[in-house]
Amino acid sequence: MDETNPIAERNAAAAAPSAAAPSADVAPRDDDDALTKLHPNHVKVLRISAALASIPFLIGALVLESADLLPTGVIVGPVALIALAVILRVPLRRHLARGYAMSADRLRVVRGILFRADTVVPFGRVQHIDVNQGPLERYYGIATLTLHTAGTHNASVDLPGLDEKLAREMREEIRSHIKREAL
């Protein structure tokens, strides 16, 4: 049985030059192109979480609407439109704003819509690694990889929305790097 390493394939594909790549004398505008996107099911999980979070606001709007203080639809209408935007648009933007790049000795995690954060975690600083799944993540086959590092600022870095098998493979690859470095 011929098993391939998806992490090595992904790294090789990212390192391979493409026909549309800029010439060597022109620096790329942004290195976001090198980032690996998260699993598409991550958007579904974010949308379901947003829908669950919007339910209390919709119930509150319905209760206020039933008090007959204002004309019908003045409260529920705007709340429903905002909830719809929060359920449909915000999770997609959050998903598209996240990405990662894993090299031989570090993991880079980029996140944020309004405030962008670009975190690089050298494997030498990693103390332990978790792969977490909530019920929704388990249902959709995705997981969150959490790297815990030495230090106080950004002592743990989460990378949600990974395929469960990929998250476990990344954890094992990072663990093997840490073991090699310790020897």
TrEMBL record:
Note whether Transmembrane occurs among the keywords. Answer: yes
Sorted keywords for this record are: Membrane, Transmembrane, Transmembrane helix
Chain positions covered by the region annotation Disordered: 1-33
Where's the YdbS-like PH domain?
A: 98-174
Compositionally biased, Low complexity: which spans?
A: 12-26
Keyword Transmembrane among UniProt keywords: yes
Query: Which residue ranges does UniProt annotate as crossing the membrane?
Result: 45-64, 70-92
PANTHER family linked: TRANSMEMBRANE PROTEIN-RELATED, UPF0699 TRANSMEMBRANE PROTEIN YDBS
What is the protein's name according to its record?
A: YdbS-like PH domain-containing protein
Source species, please? Answer: Altererythrobacter xiamenensis
